[in-house]
Amino acid sequence: MNTDMKKHVVQLLDTYHKRARQIAVLRYELSAPVKITEEEMIDTLQFAHQEGTGHTEGHISNKTPYIALNYREKAGLLNAEVLSEISLELMELEKEQQRLEYYISLLEPRQEQVLRRTCFEKAAQEAVAEELGVTVRRVQDIKAQAISELAEMYGLITGRK
Questions:
Q1: The pTM is what?
Q2: Does residue 128 contact residue 139 with C-beta atoms inside 8 Å?
Q3: Is residue 78 within 8 Å of 36, Cβ to Cβ?
Q4: Which of 34, 132, 43 is nearest to 81 (CA)?
Q5: Phi, psi of 52 (to 5 degrees)
């Protein structure tokens, strides 16, 4: 079995909680996005003129409405771009997380239980061994076999790309 694929699977298992946290943060950002506001655009316009250009107080250039509309359009584009980037990243993370969880569900029940308890729930191997009525060495063997089988599953999709 390809050692690189096993390393990849171990890395996916090790970063499961980090990905779950990233997914939660990105979902929140999509539901309550930070946007460039009209007040921020107005503030930008107020400070946009060059120093010493001789503008008089209260003078509004006939270009100001045009500039304001451009800023509004630009802000809308920037806000949409940020939401698009968040959506893409979220989709990739969720797809990876779902793939891992699905592949684990395809393992033998004991392998699935060992991986879920040791990797996802962070249970000690000793506690899992006691629950299963086996030795710690047997838990390690079951986990290693599960990782090998996951690597084989991941190898099937990698070979198609």
A1: 0.72
A2: yes
A3: yes
A4: 34
A5: 70, 25
